Amino acid sequence: MIAEPVPNGRANSAVVDRGPTALRIAVGGQLRKLREENGITREAAGDHIRGSHAKISRLELGRTGFKERDIRDLLTLYKVTDPGEREQFLDLVRKANEPGWWHRYSDLLPQWFETYLGLEYAAKSIRTYEGQLVPGLLQTPDYARSIVALGHDEDGERRVSLRRHRQELLTRPSAPSFWAVLDEAVLHRPVGGAAVLRDQIIQLIELSKLPNVTIQVLPYTAGGHAAAGSSFTMLRFAESELPDIVYLEQLTSALYLDRRPDLELYRQVMDQLSVQAEPPERSRKLLAEVADSL
């Protein structure tokens, strides 16, 4: 029998609705549980599908698409022989392989960022600390355009369009909670010039009035803090099949952390930043003061 953690019935529908990335992670987690229940190593599972233990690891983490032949062979190895159960599992695999809305921009996106877009779309809550720039979900088109222009990218307008499409996440019916702590330096970096920055800050004020959006400013007067020199995002999901994830973006790659010690450390740092930052109402006033000065 397939173990209970595989999305089933209403839970199945809930994870499917979160998009293909979330479903891929859930299916991968179930493959890991089945392998462990049968006492099979990653190396043995990799050999069985003519691959490696690294391939099994990627499958179980939901970091790659599924080949039906591989999944059929793994289900056989894991003693899932009931035709109905196998077909149910394979149906989830097919849904997990379906492209997300961001697929139309896939020629612009590295694989590691496509993964993030899928996770962002699936999240129940998003908490982020940003020390340099306004987070992508909060950027105005002109601010985004100014950032994209730094790379002299001929596909700049499509990248701006992608960012605007991402932002629909905050106002959809099932919108996640979004909590951003911005270093005060973000408000004084004239990306695109004073007028662009002023409009951006005004948009931050308006977005902070949404019931699911919280924006705090970490003032210079807070002094040193645990996240100095680092920006990060924490993603949490409604479904127990999906682990919390910390996302750290680098110039040419990204890190996805889901180990319990890492999650606890970043959770503590985020909580500390939220205490050090100005409360939401005071942050809104500070944003207005900066906008008026531009």
3D structure, described in words:
With about 290 residues, the chain is α/β, with parallel strands linked by helices. The chain folds into two domains: about 10-95, 434 Repressor (Amino-terminal Domain) (Orthogonal Bundle), CATH 1.10.260.40; about 105-294, Endonuclease, Chain A. About 50% of the residues lie in helices and about 10% in strands. It has twelve helices and six strands. The protein has helices spanning about 10-15, 20-35, 40-50, 55-60, 70-75, 85-95, 110-120, 140-150, 155-165, 195-205, 260-275, 280-294, and strands at about 125-130, 175-185, 215-220, 230-235, 245-250, 255. The chain has a six-stranded mixed sheet with strand order 3-2-1-4-5-6, sandwiched between helices. Strand 4 (about 230-235) and strand 5 (about 245-250) form a beta hairpin. Helix 2 (about 20-35) packs across helix 4 (about 55-60), helix 2 runs antiparallel to helix 6 and helix 8 packs across helix 9. The longest helix is centred in the N-terminal third of the chain and has 18 residues, at about 20-35. The chain is elongated, with a radius of gyration of 21 Å.
